[in-house]
Design brief:
This protein is α/β, with parallel strands linked by helices. It has a single domain, classed as TIM Barrel (Alpha-Beta Barrel), CATH 3.20.20.220. 50% of the residues lie in helices and 15% in strands. It has an eight-stranded parallel barrel, surrounded by eight helices. It is globular and about 45 Å long. Pfam families: Pro_dh (PF01619).
Length: 277
């Protein structure tokens, strides 16, 4: 059982708990991107387990009449074992999604996985439009990657980037990352027909996106994590398409620890919960 301190950031251990969270969010105008916790597998068995769990979840979402989608990590479904394993498992998941007309996001991990992730996305997006990929503004290669992705029919989620990448390949200072994020948004709103996902909690980046939307008319959506600026998510959903990235599953402890430590307000919340204040 997930303790209350962690349930702010994790939607439950079971699919049933997750779907109840999805249902409650939809009642408030926010849709859900569902992620089963797990990553960096080096053996095929856990990758197959998570692959099958995602397939079952897609069926459950459809049977429940909900509008949620899923997001998978490449290392979760076999990239650490080999690119062929990753592609085979992803293809099975996308096939199940197509059966139910559901959307599949492919998360982006650290820079050695970028090419394999983008190649797999490009192959699937040309066959099934309900596929998206995450891309990180802090990587210096990202403007070129966006030019490659602009003509594909899927969606692209732009985030600032959470991995500690070397300075040779990534912007490391916050002002430069913010500048790169704005530049990427400018390109996407001008060159993409639609399919833009603004993955940020930063009010300045969201405001920048809304201005570009008004200027170019390009459709977009806003994506935020469960447990972070949830009041803002509800407020934004009154005017924009808002999605909440909600993780679930038994591997919640390490995820909760990262969320609690990475932002001051999250850590304060956690400490207050511990001491009962």
């Amino acid at each position: 059982m997930i303790p209350p301190i962690a349930s702010r950031f994790v939607a439950g251990e079971t699919p049933a708990e997750l779907l109840e969270h999805v249902r409650q969010l939809e009642d408030q105008g926010v849709r859900t991107i569902c992620n089963r916790l797990g990553e960096h597998y080096e053996q095929p068995e856990p990758a197959i387990d998570d692959r099958d769990a995602y397939c079952d979840l897609l069926t459950d979402i459809d049977n429940a009449g909900l509008g949620a989608c899923i997001s998978v990590k490449p290392s979760q479904i076999g990239l650490g074992i080999g690119e062929e394993t990753f592609r085979e498992n992803l293809a099975i998941i996308v096939d199940r999604a197509a059966t139910h007309e559901k959307f599949v996001w492919i998360d982006m991990e650290d820079h050695p996985t970028t090419d394999a992730t983008l190649d797999a996305y490009a192959d699937h997006a040309t066959e099934y439009e309900r596929v998206g990929v995450c891309i990180q503004a802090n990587l210096k290669r990202t403007p070129e990657d966006l030019r490659r992705l602009a003509d594909l029919p899927g969606k692209v989620r732009l985030v600032k980037g959470a991995y500690d990448e070397p300075a040779a390949i990534a912007h490391r200072k916050k002002p430069r990352v913010n500048e790169a994020y704005r530049d990427c948004l400018d390109f996407m709103f001008e060159e993409f027909d639609d399919g833009i996902a603004v993955g940020s909690h930063d009010p300045a980046m969201i405001e920048h996106a809304t201005r570009r939307h008004e200027e170019f008319g390009t459709d977009f959506e806003i994506q935020m994590l469960m447990g972070v600026r949830e009041e803002a998510q509800l407020e934004l959903a009154e005017e924009y398409d808002v999605w909440q990235y909600a993780p679930y599953g038994g591997k919640w402890l390490s995820y909760f620890s990262r969320r609690a430590m990475e932002r001051t307000e999250n850590l304060t919340f956690a400490l207050r919960a511990i001491v009962g204040q």
